[in-house]
Amino acid sequence: MSTGTRPAPARIAGAVTRTVVAAVVAALALTACGGGTDSSSSGPDSPSPAGGGAGSAAFPVTVEHKYGSTTIEEEPEKVVTLGLSDQDAVLALGVRPVGAVDWFKEKPYGKWPWTRELWGSDTPEIVGERDEYNMEKIAALQPDLVIAQYSGMKKEQYDTLSKFTKVVAQPRDYPDYGAPWQEMTRQVGTSLGKDEQAEKLIEDIDARFGEVRDANPRFGSLTLAVADSFEAGKYSAFTATDPKAIFFKELGFQSKPEIDKLAKPGWNVAELSAEKLNVLDVDRLVWVTSGTDADDRIKAEPLYRKLKVSQDKRDLFVPYQDPDIGAAFSFNTVLSIPYAIEEITPLLTAVE
To answer: Which of 313, 241, 237, 312 is nearest to 280 (CA)?
Structure first.
């Protein structure tokens, strides 16, 4: 399992054929229009499959995105999320997506502590993995809206989906997987007619970050890098546009520009050999790992042991899961950030 956000191969983007498009449209023609659901207002503590009536007065709305703009005339009743973490913002705004993608076969519901109660017994249909979407499954759900924010959706995919539903693609002016969580939350809020609620969520999270910075002013003078390693001799460091790096920057830490220079164009992760581990010699180094075996392997690397950050024990080894600390700041959403702050801050302050 990788926590990286390398651009996913566009295996399906170029493979969507006219036959698939015809099948999708035909599937819609054979099914009845989706029935309405309870229009009573629903808040973040009680999301509903429908949008709820709270934001209906906001429509129509127009959302600008990578592939143009999309006008949504009425409040969506069925929402499908195709970004790897988009479901979090949608849930936080009181809507349970009827479909979602799978991030590295982890399934985006139920187990994450920050979403468990919001999903309840409802689970979405899995309609793809990363940036590969099952168009027939999406069409069968008869969504009123498809949201793809933290994604690498291709133009061909956007065009196919737009034949049968409204689509809000990833934010423009940012690389794929590079938009700030605030921008993606705002896009989701506008799409759902819940701008004010989205802004309140953002303000609350910004305040939480501010509290940590105020309580730990020393963070501002320290450099911090986030890295992982899922194979012996191969290491990755995350650039300033990766959600993990963004999370720690908002806690107050400084990034290391040299990492960004080592990344391939369009990537938010720099792949490192053991010989290049010196770029990770920072004031605080956070490893996101799959368990103690990976921790021990990294610590045993001779070239890593020469780094001062290792010798001074200023490195943290944080599990991706169990507990889900690494996953929380990897998602870096309005739902996962409070959990991540609560879990990681004591670990950071304990390092001398």
So the answer is: 237
